[in-house]
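For the sake of transparency, this paper describes our internal protein records without simplification. An entry from our holdings is shown next, in its original layout:
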Amino acid sequence: LHDQYRVENHSIGGATLRDMIGVYEGGILNDFDPKLNAGGNLLIIQAGTNDLAQGRSPSELYKDAQSLAADAHSAGFKVIIATILPREGGTFPWSAASENARLEYNDLLRKGRAGADSLADIASSQTMGSVEATGNSALYSDGLHPTAAAVKAYIEPIYSLALSGNLDSGTKNDGTSSEPLGTSSPATTVPPVSSSPSLPASGTVSSNGPTTPVSTSIGTGADQLIFKVSEFVYKADAQ
């Protein structure tokens, strides 16, 4: 997310979002830095896979996301929440029911963002969001974790849009129109932004999609502090 940000990555292997609002929430939100400019503390929530794999329903997961977003707002954070990418069941306990739940949860996020200020709709990528992509070693190292090259080419640009000044002009990265960062009311859904029109061959990353993330800024100068909550300890990328 570029050198203008200091990132604290709270990735805990196997943890659920439910864990994040219970056992780990205090340690995450207590790191709020009051010295930063307004909007300088940003919480990114990229979680939910483990919850759905363990049988939590999409509506229950959505309520958990709402709870964490509300607590983060109370602590002074701005919040971005991400949709869940497809998963491959060969290396992870992911069933057809889990996949259906993922799609339903993502739809809930697109409609209401769980009260977050913005949605990073990474699952809308026509490349990374394809179920077939999980078997492509250029995109997913193990059917679950995106590779560093795929993150740079397809996922990071979507996060960059979520962090960009587009928030202040009323256009969100998920294709919805909305108020500037800091509001949480649902917006009217229109087709989401996708980062690539095609699936690259295994072992390669397509040059058709964005390769240079948009330089973005929240606040002034270097006064940004991002906390990223994820249920994964990423093995193949820098998230």
